[in-house]
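As a warm-up, study this chain.
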Amino acid sequence: MGNGELRLRRQDPIITPDKSRVLLRPFVPGSPARMKAILGRIMRLSEEEAERVLLKVLEDFRNRHRNIEDVFRHRFNDLRPYLRPGCNPSLSMQVLIGAYFTCEYALEAAALFNPSIVPHPSQEGTPQGSLRFIMSLRATGEGHISSIEFRTGIISNDGTVRLDPRERFAVSPEVRQNPQYDKDEFMTKIADEDHLNPTTRGIFASLPKSFKQSELLASVARVKRKNKKLSPTRIDALKYIESLSELNYEISFPESRDLSENVIFPVSSYESNGIEDARFVRFANNGSFRYYATYTAYNGKQIMPLLLETDDFRHIRVRSLSGKAAKNKGMALFPRKIRGKHVMVSRQDGENLYCVYSNSLYSWQKPGVLLKPTYPWEFTQIGNCGSPIETEQGWLLLTHGVGPVRKYCIGAVLLDLEDPSKVIGQLKDPLIEPDESEREGYVPNVVYTCGAIAHKGRLVIPYALSDQSSRFASIEISELVDGME
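Now compare it with the structure written out below.
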């Protein structure tokens, strides 16, 4: 059977970006001097005038957010250091000050795309023969800053997709920093970036095997005090250690909130320009499941792969990765260990697809080439489109290829179950390429996914349309495998 005969079924719904979906974010209008000047103007208002201004603010914005006054009060606490000593504003004035230093961010103003999909942790109440799922999406707004949003829904027995209604509000998580670090893992990452030298070794000499961020930063400060004349190279190394220390953190969402309200927005400086292309996978280990996602942190200059882990999508931990293979974009974890090792597919050089084995989830070394561009539609670049899916015939891996006029298409390969570094089947032609209704968008002529799901012998693929919106397609797995060379 040739690719042209494959019976791929495109289906609704098409998920389009909603410009009215907004999140409250801190607003920093300038330097500390300017912030103090703004605070001074606010504080000179009489209590009556402050109440009047605040009432108007609440009338304008209360229906757009949950618990908006609590958000403003919390923001005020961040601003206390800018107040004059002994200054103690009234509660209304505190809320108003918080409002002046808060802004709305339109999460999806530019796009809602690059979806990934996994089985929901709870299948309770799901109709017989159906599968409840969680889908992540990359939302992009002002400044091209990307965040992670979630949708839930059900795949019926025949592969039809139905999305649950989405809550209109968007909620940020509680962030807990000052995490624990493992000394060996941290030093491996430092060495991988060529920042291990006598100065940086001195930072770790006094630290225990497991240390907190606060202990690390205190040690960095001690080294700075003792070494007043460091070379530019060693100053850069210290800055790198300080930045890297931000990357491990935990976030929590309220149990009472619907998952569709939850938004993972950049936290660390490495994520300041976006959290890109999360590839979620349900990982099996001794009869239990845990969810992981690899994603790309971007700060406007550098990219860094990070690992997100959770049991329930409410309490989430973000971890940094180390090793020579923990670089570039597109890392995707296999859903179980193979021969006692973790396995990842990734891209290392922006052209080929690689396979990496590891004893640890957090350290990745020695990548090996898995696949090189073979067919004209992928001559420019190939990569993965999410984590491999286990089938009786082998590991089914969706790929992406870039061809003439930077046209992105989705393909598929089959990997050996016991040796996934071995390709045993491959589609000669794309499985999905942008049709006429899918070519226009933020980045034209692109179809892309960060992960599909298998149900009742069908592969259900959520995919992005020209980096703008998203939709679904499905195909029988047996037909897909039979169509491979």
